[in-house]
Specification:
Diaminopimelate Epimerase, Chain A, domain 1; 3 domains; 13 strands; inorganic pyrophosphatase (n-terminal core); 5-stranded mixed barrel; globular
């Protein structure tokens, strides 16, 4: 269904309005695109209302699948956001309200970090049918009741994931995890200050095998989240297994690549040990007899070691370099004209120079909040998943930052906020648009 909606939405936007070329988007969510359907859409056939009405659902699937926001996917995103902002169906309206998202300012981040994880939670720790009933709810009273159940499931899922991740790290001999949400977990924006525990120093790469594998008694619905966090934090493939059927002696496992190994090919190479397997290069899963787990672990680590690449520092491509005084509402509005942005089409990265640290503090969720002075006033800033900045920065430091410039509303007032990605001492980095000179912390 997603590809049919995509091509009809392309026609609604006038062929190349959404992407610059009107061609199929690489990595479109759902099935491969149909050239015939696309050709009919581009000939200007009016968009059926029944199809347009699905744009709000198609955008959630597109974002949740981390499909590139290009071509027809970007068309889905534009029309889906318009529909959700103008008047969401009862179930989504209830879920948006439960998530505390301002509907008139809804964007793809809200869908990826607030809406999609809540829908996923219904199946991860309970009955997936609740999410379907919510989306199909005909009246707001029914939707509110289902949204409350799903919100409870989401909180339950987050707590289960937190406890399971801590247990998995102990099994691996690692320190506590960084606070904050994983790749598939909603994050409350770090606007609420709180005492966040300092992160433990990362385990030295030399002390870890080329891939980490851990087995425990965790819910099948959360092992992918645990694997994702381990892969992200440790920078290497992670495989997490749990009991599927104790009587039959079978395990179910979820894998995340951490960017190093093609998991689909690795599991094919281990196929003689597995009951079944599937997935793609970055995420996969399999079932295995428990007595074959040690043999699988040894072979998988060997594959990961053979494919391991020397670690390289991550780099950020700077799109625009500006002195701090040039960051204003006009800039934020102009950047907003490039929306929707997302996977494969990120928002511009702005280097802001000449800032002075006035305040730095921990925020709930493993984030860091900053107040940064420029010549005439101060800017609020937040660095998501960067608790290390609390120890790194001090009041009075002169810094340059790489950030996304955004605006926020609180108490009826709008203010500019920098979403900081990385920090350097003032003048330390040679910052030029298009150059990958700023090095991001892992």
């Amino acid at each position: 269904m997603a590809w049919k909606v995509a091509h009809l939405l392309i026609g609604e936007l006038g062929g190349d309005a959404a992407s610059g070329d009107g061609a199929r988007a690489s990595g479109a969510a759902g099935a491969p695109a149909s050239r015939d359907a696309g050709a009919m859409a581009r000939r200007g056939r009016p968009l059926p209302q029944a199809v347009r009405a699905l744009a709000d659902l198609a955008i959630i699937g597109t974002v949740a699948d981390v499909a590139p926001i290009l071509g027809e996917n970007r068309s889905i995103a534009r029309l889906g956001l318009e529909q959700l902002r103008a008047g969401a169906r009862p179930g989504l309206a209830a879920l948006i309200d439960r998530a505390g998202v301002a509907r008139d300012r809804l964007d793809l981040d809200d869908i990826g970090f607030a809406i999609a994880p809540r829908l996923n939670a219904a199946g991860r720790v309970g009955e997936a049918g609740r999410a379907a009933r919510l989306l199909l709810a005909a009246d707001r009273a029914e939707a509110d009741e289902l949204a409350a159940e799903i919100e409870k499931a989401n909180l339950d899922r987050r707590e289960r994931t937190r406890l399971a991740l801590a247990e998995a790290r102990r099994e691996l001999g690692l320190g506590p995890a960084r606070d904050g949400a994983g790749p598939d977990e909603a994050t409350d924006p770090a606007t609420t200050a709180g005492a966040a525990a300092p992160s433990a120093p990362p385990t030295p790469a030399a002390d870890l095998p080329a891939a980490v594998l851990v087995r425990g008694e965790w819910g099948v619905g959360i092992i992918g989240l645990i694997a994702g966090r381990l892969a992200e934090d440790l920078g290497r493939p992670a495989v997490v297994a749990t009991t599927l059927d104790a009587a039959a002696g079978t395990l179910r496992a979820s894998c995340r690549s951490g960017g190093g190994v093609n998991l689909a090919e690795a599991l094919i190479a281990c196929g003689d040990l597995l009951i079944r397997h599937g997935g793609h290069r970055a995420a996969a899963g399999f079932d295995i007899a428990a007595d074959r787990w040690p043999e699988f672990a040894a072979r998988f680590i060997g594959i990961a070691a053979a494919e391991a690449r020397p670690p390289v520092a991550a780099e950020l491509t700077v799109d625009l370099v500006l002195p701090a005084d040039s960051v204003d509402y006009e800039l934020v509005r102009e950047i907003g004209l490039l929306a929707p942005t997302g996977a494969g089409n990120p928002p511009p990265m702005v280097a802001v120079t000449g800032l002075k640290v006035m305040r730095v503090r921990s925020a709930a969720g493993g984030h860091t909040q900053l107040v940064l002075r420029r010549s005439r006033d101060v800017l609020d800033a937040v660095a998501f998943r960067r608790p290390d900045l609390v120890a790194m920065l001090h009041e009075g430091d002169r810094i340059d930052v790489v950030a996304r410039a955004a605006s926020r509303r609180f108490g009826g007032f709008e203010s500019i906020q920098l979403e900081v990605i990385d920090v350097a001492a003032e003048g330390e980095q040679l910052l030029e648009p298009g150059r990958t000179t700023a090095t991001a912390a892992p």
